[in-house]
Amino acid sequence: MDHPQNSNRIERLHQSLPTLELEINPDLRQASESGQNFKQNYRNGDDVLTFIVSAFYAKLIVILGIALPVTDAIATREYDTYDAFYMYLYLGSIIFLLYMYMIQVKEKSAQDFWRRTADSDPSYGIKKNQHVRYGSFYFRMGVTGFGIGSVIYSGLQFGQYFELSSQKDCDNVLKAVKPLLRIIFALMQMLFIFSYSNFLDMQRSKIIARFGLMHMIATNVCEWLFVLIEETQHDIYKSAKKRQDNAARDNVSLSEMDFKFLNSTTFTITKQMYEHKVNCLQSNIMEPILIKSEPYLAPCTVEYSLLCAVILGLMWKNAQYYENTDTRGNNSPEAEEKQSGCNVIYSSRQSQFSVDCAQAHKGLFTGILVLAVTVISLIMFFELVGYKEYQDIAILQVNAWEAVLFGMGTVAAVFCIAALRDIGFHQMKRALELEHLLLLVTQCGVFMYFLFQIIGAVLMGLNKGKGGIMRIITPHSALIQSSCQTVLVLDAWRRRCSTATQMRLKPGRQLITFLLVANIALWMVNRLKNNRSVSHPNQMDFYGVLAWNIITHVTMPLVVSYRFMSSVCFYEKSQFAFSDVHVDALCRSRKSEEDAERADGASPGLATLFPALAQSEVRTTFSNFKGRFCTVKAGAPDIIARR
Length: 643
What we know:
Elements: H1 4-13, H2 26-74, H3 80-117, E1 131-133, H4 137-160, H5 174-194, H6 206-250, H7 256-262, H8 265-279, H9 286-318, H10 333-339, E2 345-347, H11 361-384, H12 391-419, E3 424-425, H13 434-460, H14 470-492, E4 495-496, H15 500-505, H16 509-530, H17 537-543, H18 545-576, H19 582-589, H20 591-599, H21 606-609, E5 617-621, E6 629-633, E7 639-642
Antiparallel strand pairs: 1-2, 3-4, 5-6, 6-7
Helix pairs in contact: 2-6, 3-5, 3-6, 4-5, 4-9, 6-9, 6-18, 11-12, 11-16, 12-14, 12-16, 13-14, 13-17, 13-18, 14-18, 16-18, 17-18
GO molecular function: proton channel activity
Organism: Zophobas morio
Membrane topology: Multi-pass membrane protein
C-alpha cells in the first residue's frame, strides 16, 4: 500500500507547472495570532470604557436635573441658567436624532444598491425587512398617546408666552424657546421609538450612538424630575391657599402643621413668584386653560418620559450585541445568539393588526359594564365634591366603588390563575419582557402610595376624620389585587395552549379580558381622581400639605403607569397565548429544531406545541388570521384543529 505522501508526489510529477510548498514558521503564526488577540482585547476595552464613561455622563446630568429644579423651587428670583440647562438637553437630543435619521436614509440607500447589484446571491447585502421593535404595538401606541399629551401641554405653555407683557422682568424669550424645543424633541423621539429603533444602522459610530442614547435617557429623566417638582410646587401652593381661604371663610383655626407651613419662608417665596407671574400677564386667556388642563396633561409628560427612558436604556444596554455587524449588515453567529436573548421584537416592515374576540365576549361586556359604572362614579364625584355638604358623600362613594373594583380584580385574578394551570408551560431562555419589567418597577409606586394611606389611617384611627373603615379597606384591597395580578401576569407569560381542545375553549380568556378592561377603569380613577392630593383630605390632615403632596406626586405616576402596563400585558396574553400566532415566534427561536423537523418533512415548531404527536407524520398549513388551521396525520383519520 502506497504512502499518501508518495502518491501526492506522483500526482505532482504529471502536473504541467511546478508547485512550491511553503511552511509558515510556528513562531510567526503564534505572533500573528497574539497580535490579533491584542487588537481584539484593545477594542473590547474601548467598548467597555465607552459604556462606563457614557453612564457617568448621564449620571452627572441627572444629578444636575435634580439639583437645579429643587433650587429653582426655593429661590427668591428666576434665573436663566435653569432654562439654558434644559435647552442644552433638548438641543443635544435633537441633534443626535437628526444624525440617526441621516444614518437611516444612508442605510436605506445602501440597501437599495445591494438589492440591485446582488440579485444572484440572496445572502449578499443587507438583511431585508428586519426591524427591531422595543415593546409590543399596543405598548408603543400607549407611549405615543402619552407623548401627544406631553406635546399638547408644551403647546399651551408656548402659547402662554404671547400673553406676557413687555416689561423687563416679564419678557423672556427662553420661556417660548424652551417649550418649543420640548415639542420638537417629543415628536422626534416618538418617531424614533415607534419606527426607527434599529441598532444595526449605528455601529459605524458606536461612541456617538452610546453617548447620544445616554444623553436622551438623561433628558427624559430630567424632564420627568422637572415636571414632577414643578407640579408638586404648584399643587402645594394651591392646596395650602385653598385651606387658608376655607379656614378664613368658615371662621375656623388651621392645624398647627398647616399654620407653620403657611408662615414658612418657602410658602412666602412661592406666593410671591405666583403673584409676579399673574402681574406679568396682559390677558387671561391661556392661563385658565393651562390651569384646568394641567392636572391631566402634566402626568402625560411624566409617564411619557418614564417609559421612553426605560426603552432607551434597553437600547443602550443591547447596543453591545450588535458590535459584530459587518458593513453589509450580516451578523456574526455570536451577535445573533446574543440578540435572541435581548428584549426586542424582530418584525417585517409590513405588519398586520388584528383583534380576536373568540371566547372573550362575556369578559368584554362585563368589563364594559364595570367601566360604565366607573364613569358614573367619577361624574358624581366631580359634581358633588364642589359642595361642602356633599363632599364627604362624594369621596365615600368613589372610594367604595374603588374597593369593589379591587375586590372583583382579586377574585378574577385568582380564578384565572387556577384556570391557566392546565395550559402547557413553555420553557423560554429569554430575559424578562420589557412590559413585565416595567410592570414590576411601577408596582413599587402602588405599594408606596397605598402603604402610606394604610399607615395614616391606622395612626389616625377609625373615629377620627371622615370615611371610617373605608380608609383601611380600600388600600388593603388595592395591595392584595396588585399582588395577585402581578403573579398572574408573570405566570401566564410562559403558558401556551398545547392541544386542539385548549385552542377551542381558550380557558381563562374571559377573565383576562375582564381584567384588561378593569385595569383601564382603574387607570381612569387614578388619572382623574387620585392624582389630586385634595381627593384625600384625611391623609392631608395627617401628613400635612407639604408631605402629602410630595407623596402623591412621586407615587401616582407610577400607579397610573402600572395600570397601563397591566392592560398591555393582558392584551398581549389575550391575543397571542390563546391562538397559534406564537408558532412563528417559536419557529424563529428554535433554529435547530426547525432544521431537524424540516428534514423529516414536518412543520417547524409544531412538535413543540403538540408533544404527543412529535413522532407522527405532521403536515401543517398556515394562512391568514381567519383561515389558519393545522392538519395532523397519525395513521388514523385526519384530525383537523380549526380556530
